[in-house]
Amino acid sequence: MTPARAVPQPAGRLAVAGGLALVVAVALYAFGRTHTPSYTMGLLGQHGVAVNRLKAQLATGMLGLALVQLTLALWMYRRLPGAGVAPPPVPVLHRVGGVSLFLLSLPVAVHCMFAYGVQLGGLRVAVHSVAGCFFYGAFAAKVLIVRSRRLPGWALPVAGGLLVTLVAVMWYSSALWYFDGSRLPLP
Questions:
Q1: Residue 158: pLDDT above 90?
Q2: To 10 degrees, the CA torsion angle through 22, 28, 30, 33?
Q3: Helix, strand, coil percentages, rounded to 5, for the chain
């Protein structure tokens, strides 16, 4: 008779997801702090001011997708006022949107990490750098959480909400800064 395999309890599963998020974020942070930036690196054939415009446009697309993701998630879980029950294509659209957002983020993240690394020289840049590292950690955790069926009901919405918040913070500290003439409007 073989021993039964232990099934991690919800607290253990949450700890694993949180640990994964932290490992990914710290690894990206460590790489970004130790890597020698290449300020002349291009992105999709763009250089200089054009690369900043392209990154701002891609980041704006990411923000739009994040808001669509939030809307679809609220609809799937019947938290979207007046929308009723989500039709069967909504979960599929949510998954495709999440993958699209992740793929759209990769060229921007690779460019930022290799061209600039993680910089802490000013509040805006530091917030942006750290939020970028945490975004990929939170994404890894959300993938793990969405695959687990034995977690508290609040875990998935918190993970998804954190992702939307991090995308908004990254957009505010980069794309909005770019579109507003290299300054941030104060809330």
A1: yes
A2: -140
A3: 70, 0, 30
